[in-house]
Amino acid sequence: MGRQKRHAFGIYFGVPILWLILAPSKIDVQLIDLPPLTFGALANYARSWGVLLGYNNSIVLQWLNNSVVYSISSVVLSVIISVPAGYAFAVSKFAGRKLLMTLTLITMILPGSAMVLPLFLEMNLVGLVDTRLGVILPALFYPFGVYLSYVHFATGMPKDLLSAGRVDGCNEWQLFWYIGLPLAKTLFALLSFLSFSANWNNYFFAFVMLNDPALYNLPVGLQAMASGTPMLNPTFAATDSSLKRPEAATAILLMVLPVI
Question: pTM for the complete prediction?
């Protein structure tokens, strides 16, 4: 029964990805006329990619570069902050610890949409709206990462190791560096993946924060591209745009392949 469930889930999630991979191999008419999972021609991949690059002076590459910069910067900085913060919550008893932990948990359970307006007002106050820093800096505080780090160190790090380190003369920073960090390799991997996925797929906050198309990330840029393409948005006035559904599938592949 368990194997059947795994197969069912594999089919449920795998078939759409397979369709997405095969879609750019066909021209627009073939996407309608041919069976969904048929392969068209290898040359169509190059054709779709060339048409996509021709859109607005290859601005798709700029969006891709922006997504990489936003995501990698946010991942690195959020992990650098989350892991030491979680370690401090787990091993230290300092004034205000419970209050800070409670505030972290409250922030963690708040929906992301509820934080957009306060963050926008804060970034606007310091003049960072419509800048790269305006997208990167709010991602530095990663409440779930702090809480997950706290749970990891509180439950998975033997207290005897810390006691032995103190006997050997280590201060708190040395305990974290020589004992805590080597035991947190899986934590780093998990936090990096979760943070990368969240920031790579970040649409709403980037949509609110950015006005300059040259600063868009991929989610915002592809949505702008789709909304201005008659083939993808029938309500839009007719233009000379050559973008069609195979090019849209190619653009979506840019979004999903890094996460896969």
Answer: 0.85
